[in-house]
Structures
1.
Amino acid sequence: MAGSTYGNIFKITTWGESHGKALGVVVDGCPAGLSLTEEDVQAYLNRRKPGASRFATPRKEDDAVEILSGVFEGKTTGTPISMMVRNKDHHSADYSKIASYYRPGHADYTFDEKYGFRDYRGGGRSSGRETIGRVAGGAIAAKILKELGITISTYVTSIGPISIAQNRFDLNEAKNNELNMPDKVAAQEAAAYLESLIKEKNSAGGTVECMVQGLPTGLGDPVFEKLDAGLAKAIFSIGAVKGFEIGDGFAAAHATGADNNDAFGIGADGNVIKKTNHSGGTLGGISDGSPLILRAAFKPTPSIASPQETVNKNGEEITIEIAGRHDPLIAARGVVVVEAMTALTLVDALFANASARMDTLKKIYE
Amino acid sequence: MAGSTYGNIFKITTWGESHGKALGVVVDGCPAGLSLTEEDVQAYLNRRKPGASRFATPRKEDDAVEILSGVFEGKTTGTPISMMVRNKDHHSADYSKIASYYRPGHADYTFDEKYGFRDYRGGGRSSGRETIGRVAGGAIAAKILKELGITISTYVTSIGPISIAQNRFDLNEAKNNELNMPDKVAAQEAAAYLESLIKEKNSAGGTVECMVQGLPTGLGDPVFEKLDAGLAKAIFSIGAVKGFEIGDGFAAAHATGADNNDAFGIGADGNVIKKTNHSGGTLGGISDGSPLILRAAFKPTPSIASPQETVNKNGEEITIEIAGRHDPLIAARGVVVVEAMTALTLVDALFANASARMDTLKKIYE
Amino acid sequence: MAGSTYGNIFKITTWGESHGKALGVVVDGCPAGLSLTEEDVQAYLNRRKPGASRFATPRKEDDAVEILSGVFEGKTTGTPISMMVRNKDHHSADYSKIASYYRPGHADYTFDEKYGFRDYRGGGRSSGRETIGRVAGGAIAAKILKELGITISTYVTSIGPISIAQNRFDLNEAKNNELNMPDKVAAQEAAAYLESLIKEKNSAGGTVECMVQGLPTGLGDPVFEKLDAGLAKAIFSIGAVKGFEIGDGFAAAHATGADNNDAFGIGADGNVIKKTNHSGGTLGGISDGSPLILRAAFKPTPSIASPQETVNKNGEEITIEIAGRHDPLIAARGVVVVEAMTALTLVDALFANASARMDTLKKIYE
Amino acid sequence: MAGSTYGNIFKITTWGESHGKALGVVVDGCPAGLSLTEEDVQAYLNRRKPGASRFATPRKEDDAVEILSGVFEGKTTGTPISMMVRNKDHHSADYSKIASYYRPGHADYTFDEKYGFRDYRGGGRSSGRETIGRVAGGAIAAKILKELGITISTYVTSIGPISIAQNRFDLNEAKNNELNMPDKVAAQEAAAYLESLIKEKNSAGGTVECMVQGLPTGLGDPVFEKLDAGLAKAIFSIGAVKGFEIGDGFAAAHATGADNNDAFGIGADGNVIKKTNHSGGTLGGISDGSPLILRAAFKPTPSIASPQETVNKNGEEITIEIAGRHDPLIAARGVVVVEAMTALTLVDALFANASARMDTLKKIYE
């Protein structure tokens, strides 16, 4: 089935393989009149680029984006925006080995089972490079949100056993360190931890948190199109994500109602506020005016250089060592992908909500 | 936006409010030739019925389902199956109070913000009774799965601070106790814990796990329609769910690659197997032949009888006590809902996968 | 596949068979705050009711609609509106014969081929009674349009060889005669023609035209979601429709550009107008401010009482005579169905268009 | 709204403007294991290429397609196939004039009304070049159909007042003449007619017919996803199409039931056949085993060089003459577009039908 399109009204369709000619995205349903340049998109892509950190794969890629359609005289026209990134560093490796066996923790086996064969070069479509399209599309979504006064912050909250401390939480710090942690001390500890794992030819998992401020109340629809359900799918569609929660998440399962309920009150400006935010910004699947807080669990990078047991396509049990240096951590490079998927989901919810009330429709059409 | 339809090829559309005339579902895209009776569906509905346990609301409802279309001479015809449950016990309460204020932890406030007003009787569309449609639809999905050799088991793994012990895990036990826990000891402890909470006019959260066996490899599509992404949305669309994970889930974020990767091997029957199942049955978003394991975190019931701070529609801060007896726990009654949503998602994935390969298509059409 | 849901943002899901327990529809995505009563819907259903005319089947059905959800205190709440009509007159006939053979011009054969068997009672799901759900849903769509200043007129323009004359065109007349023709003379001629066909146990085709006034410019999207493409599908999904055109339609294929182009000019109010309307109200798939004009060709009723050649399920060639009296004409009862499908499509296009421009979004959210 | 994606399971997403950098398509949901080369696609694109005929615009474009993803070692992998055609001849014209006024019969005015402004170069997204993506996608769909034994023939049946004669119908002839007419005499008359129109700076409409052979019975779903409804939308989404019919189409509206019903009989091979094909290959919206016959009415090219009245953006009435030479006829170049849209729709229907019966599902999964 067609699984490469995301969104109902604001849609992206991504394409491309790790070692194919190019990767890209078509963004459809973007409203006309948004100022947009390649620089807007490139800024996002640079945040996920390989080679930017000690803790990311040293693959050399410019990941320079080209906008091919949908923008005229600096503004979006309402027609689909096609964007493309050419692959450059894709002839270096020898993939004859990888073709013959199934890497643990990767999709090699399941692709073969599903499709009968696979593009084995660098993971093909199931490579992390697949996220280029998401991030390019998300950059546009984020720009729409910004125009409407909505901002997103995304950062790493834990790496392996090291978590940030709430009393050291500093959003600016998340931009200063290469691990995107909003806690300088934790970032230093995590860096040391990762260095030790690299020596052991091992890798680490981590958690990423995303906070959205300025979101209007009323986004999301009851039942199947709850805002949190949409976000759950969006975030879980990112490779390596194994858990998702909103607000207190799993901790709420261990709490009591008296502790977990957020009391309502009247804020300084006379508006209704929640005095706490255990809910993470949604009630009944609809945004409640508090900051939206979501969290994703990323598994450790499955590509590790230490020996692993597996089987080959002849049905023989073998031991392999995956050559080359890989990211010892997915979570840090996942930050911008989580942000992109969140932005895409919120824009779609904003558009869907435009027809929720007769009085809004009359405002538009009368 | 229309948020009451779930699924791409196998679709359900649910409708109805807690205190309206009836609730129901239209199941569309059900293949022709499935034996189906009202009893098949009723068996599922009985698992979510109120009044069946000390720990569930004593509201009296038969929840007797009527199949109105789509079945002829005992078999599905391929046309939409409409099912309906009439509400009976819905005139008793006085809802004038609830109309005037916002219950903490409920969707009262967000519905008002989104739609301008709300059906305040018993929570309207955001009531737990909304799940009747899901469960009735899920009963049909589960029957399709069963015909294809796929079975689902769902149970409660923790209530408040009490978790099941893996060494006492017993699936049959989950059917014996009213808390659906596969561990007799834990169930007894949890029951005592809930009794104490009831006395305190408080409520508990809990976690629900679902295990699917017999699933073919190859279900789910790369990128946005990953099987786990679909399940994440399905489960997160259930009211009160605040967290979702698959396999090791959040624990994977604290593990290393060497620990988290599942080695492949050759099983007794000569087929490829995974020696462990940290992944929870999917790799790259595609089912990998191991049991599918997912987990949902349910928040505590927000309706508690102890005093709570909130605001009314006049913008005044008030203190309320929610009258009546409510479920002290959502998780146990959520078990069948989790199972239903899982079944619906799997059936859709099975159908989507039918066109993944040219050789399958040739088998169908030549 | 699920084929019983129509619409992208404003959706209807219909269900029910000719001789099942009931037929109905779930309308999802209806904005909150629309005044709605059962009478609003009943008025539309009465226009398609059997037994209302000499030229319609004498089957006795009240077709009394019940609204089961989605309306509270006289207004839509934004949640799904479920509506149902119980079948009454459905035990009279003996369907053992019809079960054994394939009626020419009906879907008996194709249902059997597709699904392996069929609900043969009165055509099952492929009966004209299937349109009850569409018409009930369309009544709500039409009410939304009316609130936004948009009106729809639908009428029969030809029956067999008899067409209305443009110089006698009178919209009011279409409501006066039982054939819904906006031309008294043509209606009388057509009635005489139908009387003669009834005597011959034969039936007639006809064409239906729909005109929409007050439609804003800008509805419809370029490429695949052109307004006319959406209408084409909507109208062609009605059983018995074999042709669809917009504006000059097939006549445009015989015209030259100089004749077919509509010149633009400045109207009395200073706005841009089209001086003619060969286009029928759309340019490039987007509404152009002129009245929308569409036309549907209905084939003759396939159920005729004269002898016909066919085959039975044993593979034998036989001659049949279809018992009972049937509509000698589908077109007249198709009028309200065409109107319903047009209304549904327009409402969906209105909602989709809400996010076409950044400045509209800012008006909604800022 | 996102209007650039077509299809439910087999989907294409097209992008690009007449004078942008490139145009393209992403084909998603293509089954794995289909042999595919750029030549397969180029052969289709060459059929719509400008400059290939006296009667087509002399714009110079190679329209050379590049496959960017989704194909590995000569076969489709199941992942999205991205294809692109770079624009070359797009800097020649001066579009300052066209920017200031609204061309009659074009989408200039409606784009401005919908989006606030437009990419006025060569019609932007509403140019005929938009069909490049459809045709490239359709080439893949046609290849899938061919593998399943289904063939499509498409040809011009009338140009202005000249229609083909059924007794001279010759499918091979349609490939020999530049007007794609299956009647040598009619093609010569039409050519003469077009020459005279070119001298008059005028243009002609035409009709295109498409015939599909080898289609299995059972495609299409009752109610809204009727095969003919899907085709109606597909064909009507092509710019310049103003009418669509299937089988006898509008002629059926003037026929009687006795004439229009197709009698069933037993064919030479013992299978059920229809003795005539007034229905055009569908009954109840489901393919009936007879050849599928559909017809599209194309309006005359709106770009004509003779003087036309219109208005400019300052609200002044002006007279314009559209410079340059344009196609005097859209229908002939529309042939391959009709074929592409038909192929895309049929592939999607084939995939949707895979889950219509439990026994088919058991064949796939057991």
2.
Amino acid sequence: MDSSKSSDTSSKINELARRRGFFWQSYEIYGGVGGFVTYGPLGTRLKLNIEAKIRDIFIKKLGIFEIESSVISPGQVFEASGHVNHFKEFMVKCSNCGKGFRVDQIINEKLGISLLEIEKMDFAEIKKVFRKNIFDCPECNNALKEPTQFLTMFKTTIGPYSKAIGYGRPEAAQSIFVEFNRLYKMAREKLPFGVIQIGHALRNEISPRQGLIRLREFTIADLEFFFNPEEANCNFIDEVESEVLPILLAVNRKKGIEEISNFTVREALEKKIVCSEWQIFFMVMAMKLLLEIGIPIKNQRFIEKLPWEKAHYATQCFDQEVYVDRWGWIEVSGHAYRTDYDLRCHMDASGADFRIFKEFEKPVEEVNYLLKPKMSLIGPKFKEKAEEIIADLSIVPVKEVLESFEEKGYYFVKGKKITKNQVEITQRKKIIKGKRFIPHVVEPSFGCDRLFYVALEYALKSKKNRTVLSFPRNIAPIQLGIFPLVNKDGLNDKAKTLSTFLRSEGFLVEFDDAGSIGRRYARADEAGIPLCITVDYVTMDNDTVTIRDRDLWKQVRVSINDLSKLLVDYFKEKIEFEDFGDFIESK
Amino acid sequence: MDSSKSSDTSSKINELARRRGFFWQSYEIYGGVGGFVTYGPLGTRLKLNIEAKIRDIFIKKLGIFEIESSVISPGQVFEASGHVNHFKEFMVKCSNCGKGFRVDQIINEKLGISLLEIEKMDFAEIKKVFRKNIFDCPECNNALKEPTQFLTMFKTTIGPYSKAIGYGRPEAAQSIFVEFNRLYKMAREKLPFGVIQIGHALRNEISPRQGLIRLREFTIADLEFFFNPEEANCNFIDEVESEVLPILLAVNRKKGIEEISNFTVREALEKKIVCSEWQIFFMVMAMKLLLEIGIPIKNQRFIEKLPWEKAHYATQCFDQEVYVDRWGWIEVSGHAYRTDYDLRCHMDASGADFRIFKEFEKPVEEVNYLLKPKMSLIGPKFKEKAEEIIADLSIVPVKEVLESFEEKGYYFVKGKKITKNQVEITQRKKIIKGKRFIPHVVEPSFGCDRLFYVALEYALKSKKNRTVLSFPRNIAPIQLGIFPLVNKDGLNDKAKTLSTFLRSEGFLVEFDDAGSIGRRYARADEAGIPLCITVDYVTMDNDTVTIRDRDLWKQVRVSINDLSKLLVDYFKEKIEFEDFGDFIESK
């Protein structure tokens, strides 16, 4: 990675983001607080459009449910889920200035041990490293204290009772799990079904440094997909079986090999690279989502998580990563097979029953045998030992006794042989209609702020010394710029009327009449507006306008009558700019 | 208010909301926590649609900016804004069980004093009431303690430093104010402009009781509109001047009169009932918003807040109220004239400069006079007193001296007369190009959960013993139901293909093939689906389907080819159901 270039790109994004109102660090007037950002007007619109894409791809096709719950959750929820125990980071504080630092950052910076290696260390090993080395505070150069564990959830109190602990949710998944029974009813008591929640979540990071990549408050999209583990087939698998997934395998990662292997969905399932059909299906959908927000497949990969990297609830886990200039590969989504872990935890903690009754296709007959000692034979034969023998016979597994009769003709109790004729064997039949099980869960989970960041980085282009944000047309924050060529002779009014009309047709429109037309095009390019419509003197004659394409810098002239239909089709990706008509001479 | 009827309506809404997945109290498996709700699939969609309406009405027309910031805010923000000092409720705890109660609820329930009267009391008066009376705990009947003040913000710590206090924001407004300078730049340094934020907010209520009406976590839509108080005209005022606002005046409220007065916008401004044109404009828009989500004007009113009811930042404040069956009139939005209060607070606390420089139309010449004692005259005349006199002349206001010369011919200094000829007077001219001022703010602020509740209550109808949710068509959670008449002969596949097509056209579609067609219509009515499309045997012949209207229970038959266009126009409210074609015989 060329570090000079990388810092350029990232600085350029930050400068542009602040100036044009995509995002910036919040509360700057109070010195800023790490880990919090404010999305400005263009950023909020872009973020809403990316969230709408998630809804498009996941909700509409699959009939996934969406819910909205609270960020603050009662303590029990995250005690039961294991977060209160596991959601911790190793931290070390300075003995002098009191500032806290992540242990992995300190060890990495001071000893050069890779973050991957540090992630494997447990608390004892971490403490050993700190006992062997003396580390100075990066801020004030005084000695650092002993490492501790820091719970990275925001903690608060709900209502006036100091014992009613609440946490800011670090994920949106738990508020889906705790409502499972109600949601299952809404799915008309049928599996499989999925529930998504897109909302703010909180992680009280010790020292967040990477802007949008590591936030204390962020937007998460957690999709929990519930299915019967014995009927785990995905009914869309045929549609995606020849899609190719670029995967960095755990086995290679362990050897330090960064090589990506390409597998078709079918291959990955056959070779058990990915164990769940639903999981790999969502991985394909995630790949498509990223493609739609502008990230080419070649800049995407999935990495298989190593055992010590996996969250406490996951059996198999893949991270979807995107290559960015400054930080290399960064995670944008996680794909975890959570099994029945979460539902089971909440069942145990709350006493609720999340099991589902599955009726067998035909009822199964279960036969139970009962053993009854014949007193009239055992009593006289074993005398004073009879009572003990009878007591033992009442607790030994009947199956064991019957097998022993079959094999040897007798069964040993208290060192005595009991024969088949000394007991009475009766059958009891039971009709079993079905069984109860806890659904399994696969979870695709997206960090919306990271999706936002990669969309912005991949849109960023430079053309003739001008910054152009080439967003895919249907995530662009503003769809249309409307400009009167000049501010006189009625052109301005005509352009305003056109703006109002196109707004009422549902388009996101920006009217701009300030400065030369060239400067307005430049501003529009920088805001990523795909099409700019100019009202000129010809418009006043024949009701046609020019439309200019952001990426081609070419213009066509179309009739205002045709405009709405053309634009609808263009933004639905039914037609391309070239289909609008012949290019005209650009001014 | 008929209380038996009211409890019926409210119970009916709650029962329906839980069963069909509009909303329910969160975390039921852990016993539920007051003040937190989960919106289910239908509810989330309805809520998103209502929020989209707010965006439609406020953002699109006015070019209002939207931003998204964090729920957790550093302590300084709410110290500066006055919330840490003012955002408190009087609370009283039980000496035995420790449960906390709102003081106003206790006094109201035990002494029968109206909540309106209690709201006027300050802390001293509250304490007096508690000293005069002995109140028992409503839960365990033991004695209540002394009243205290409870800060109704959620408090937490940001990062590992225990001194870095953070609060859950009780409103979205402050994260707009603190970013004023950046937002003003995005408005190209022109007033007026507005910024909206729609997001979660938190109020740590002592004992929330009223379901969706009083939540600890809720969604707020705060719109802050910035303008120059000396150029306070609203450029849309002509468009709304004859709109009629139903207002309950403060002067009547003080007398206990509940009579609504109707004023046109023009009258209300002329009579100074509402002082700001922008404020009344937003009140009209709020009225239209409520109308569009299904609340007739006759069930809306604005109440003028009394001095002791107003928030600490507001000069003039109106609440928009809607009549609901259970609680009578409830607030759904607040309209506050916040003046420059908030910007000024944050300027004082942070040192940032939020003043705007306004250039005068033509520069103003300011003349300053300088006074210089003539030493050659004063020295000889006043001898040892001369030094004192000269020192005094250097600090007295020049204007005062000149006026005294004009009036009396002399000016007294240290008991001595100084005359005009003993001093030299020079002029210094200064050109003043403009002045600096802090913008004023009017704020419409909507409680989205309350909008949701009133939309649900007003949609709730009963027809032939069947529950129908008659949502206005463009907030309905699902737009179209698609049903195959039977599950055979290819009807099911045809209906599924149609569903896929209509989803790709952007409609919110529910496919349903379970149970009789009658039961499916009933389920659709209860979910508020405006139109249901049925694929029947005729469809297989001639590619037409029936469309059934939720409210009329009438059907038309249309060609699949015309469907998309008709439905687009219908949901854009360009055509009515009657325009689809002739009604056919209902099955």
3.
Amino acid sequence: MTPGDQHSDAPAAQPVRSDAERNRGRILAAARAVFGRDGLGASMASVARETGVGIATVFRHFPTKEALVAAVFSDRMDAYADAVATALDHPDPWHGFIGYIETACAMQAADSGFADVLTMTFPTAKAMEKRRNEAYEGMVELISRAKATGRLREDFDPSDLVLLHMANLGVVNACGDAAPDAWRRVVALMIQSFEAPARGTLPASPEHDALYRAMLRAAPVSGATRKPEQSS
Amino acid sequence: MTPGDQHSDAPAAQPVRSDAERNRGRILAAARAVFGRDGLGASMASVARETGVGIATVFRHFPTKEALVAAVFSDRMDAYADAVATALDHPDPWHGFIGYIETACAMQAADSGFADVLTMTFPTAKAMEKRRNEAYEGMVELISRAKATGRLREDFDPSDLVLLHMANLGVVNACGDAAPDAWRRVVALMIQSFEAPARGTLPASPEHDALYRAMLRAAPVSGATRKPEQSS
């Protein structure tokens, strides 16, 4: 069984024969490659082509593109939600907070698909959005607790985590295999900049709607190819 | 006259008629678009196609691709060298240093071609490399002076500027027009993290050769399209 089977975006459970399971796995692998290469705007037809099956087979396993997107990204969403839960469980909220950042940035460096979960929205995949929003609420709570300890600067905004992940992705993409750990130094500097007391004021955070639009337009990045299209 | 005419990578000066000048400008504009879209690996033939002239016309103005690359990027190289010179002239090296960062990151946000000058190498364009190396030496001198004031952390490495520009480009590319000033907040945080005394140790900087390889593989980024090819 693939991780997507466990989630409400997945098609209704039915007895599945093993060749159907194998097909499902092949479709998911192909979809991961196609979405990584062409963005979430890629069509079900191109996923079928990549898999080497007819489009009807794709639709039999995933009745909507939302269901397919959710299945492709759900394991990354699980990892993100787990990282937030672990951070919230830490007895010291500041250490939970920086531990989360290091974990999430490491996941982002290891897997460009994870970056999509962090910096994109999935407006057409409601269950995905719901789970991410729950994790996001957990982060907001963690940030509030970390501020209460006096270790996190008061003007830290949850959107700074989105910006951090965009910056991290820039380093990861630019350095690639040539300097695969360079992002760690940038993330360490960023974490130190978050520490209270603040060493100066900051330009205002982007407005929520603006950052949301930015996340909407950000396409999955895989290797060095990206396209601007978003889920249609 | 275009900026490229002043530099040693440009073809030997000859009396140029005004329609030839116009052609030269059109070729440069087309090359800027083609390199931005396809990377420095784009062929002279594709520049000719984009310009709408024969390839012989392109070679008459730019006898080698190195000469064309140098002409396309020389105005950005000028801006980079000017920013370094201005920073070195500042009576307070720390303020010169942070002023340089703000200027260079603003140029990077406004013009993706500028990012290429900062984070790529041009191994086949010797004069470009020479000018950039001179500007880089100026930066190393400025960093040394800023450390001497006690305001810049001792473990700051010149390569941290490259990483900063990679991070900034990540934010600029991800936010685009949706949140066009979001990078300012990230850069302000980074500058605060550079301030002495350091709030903690940092992971080691990437090795010089590793970062150089990363810069070699980084292709020009324009909008949301990039390709891995480098100058051939």
